[in-house]
């Protein structure tokens, strides 16, 4: 059991309105597992915002130091799924109620992982 986990909160805004959020928990320190829950506002969201949230989560320094990712997001959120598949390796998904659960390996951090859209982040 880990001594204590690091928790982060990430949000993506559009015209000053928060449209997507993620809660991220990193356990096991460097080389451990990052767990995240991705949620977007209901209704229409501009294309790319969900992908921006995925990028913001994967670009957190603590996530980049992790070896594995576990992500939960709503079934049908194909934009988040597609971006996670692009940025992760050995991706496996399965349904869990109204959510999809993704388990994947994270690539070693490098200069090629840049966000598409700036996102604000704050620890919680």
CATH architecture field: 3-Layer(aba) Sandwich
**Mean pLDDT over all positions:** 86
Distance between the termini: 21 Å
What count of helical segments does DSSP give? 3
Q: Mind telling me the CATH superfamily name? A: Gcn5-related N-acetyltransferase (GNAT)
**Would you give the CATH topology?**
Aminopeptidase
The largest sheet, given as strand count, sense and whether it forms a barrel, is: 7 strands, mixed
Written overview of the protein:
The structure is a single chain. The protein has 124 residues and is α+β, with helices and mostly antiparallel strands. It has one domain (6-108): 3-Layer(aba) Sandwich (Aminopeptidase). The chain has 3 helices and 7 strands. The protein has helices at 49-58, 61-64, 78-87; strands spanning 6-14, 17-27, 33-40, 68-74, 89-96, 99-105, 120-123. Strands 5-6-4-3-2-1-7 form a 7-stranded mixed sheet, with helices on one face. Strand 2 and strand 3 form a beta hairpin. Helix 1 runs parallel beside helix 3 (78-87). The protein is globular, with a radius of gyration of 14 Å. The protein starts with 5 loop residues before the first strand and ends with a strand. The model is unreliable at 111-124 (pLDDT under 50).
